[in-house]
Amino acid sequence: MTDSTASGASARALMGDRVLLLAVVLSAMASVALGLQFVDSGLALGITAVLLLIAGGGYAMARGSVACRYVLTFALVGFVALHIQLARGMVEFHFGVLVALALLLVYLDWKIIVFGAAAFAVHHIVFDRLQA
Question: Do 51 and 72 contact (CB within 8 A), yes or no?
């Protein structure tokens, strides 16, 4: 790989991290709004704070690296799961899964998309068993 190719990949990774960080911040604001609307503000504020710390810490320490991609993906998946939980499982909020997976295309890396899809699948199975 030449220097220009490496710098292009690095710039793409940094741009992808910024896009996902913006999506995480917007998701955090949506979580707080949903928590206030559905009278579950304690859960919304608590989980939002934890996920923002995870995403912010990952971005601050590993910006542009593969590790940051996984951390931001985990945070975004966590926020979509939180939105669904706060909305009491409303079908409309399940479309956030598709939006999150589409946002992961910014990295042009199939492994990140598979990780996000697997995280959604694990969440779905765990919550199904917990609610049974």
Answer: no
d(CA 100, CA 120): 10
Contact 74, 119 (CB under 8 A): yes
- Distance of alpha carbon 103 from alpha carbon 115, whole angstroms: 13
* H-type alpha helices, the chain: 3-37, 41-62, 66-86, 95-103, 110-131
Predicted structure pTM score: 0.90
| pLDDT digit string, tens, across residues 29-75 | 999 999 999 878 899 999 999 999 999 999 999 998 999 999 999 99
- For helices 95-103 and 3-37, angle between their N-to-C axes, nearest 10 degrees: 160
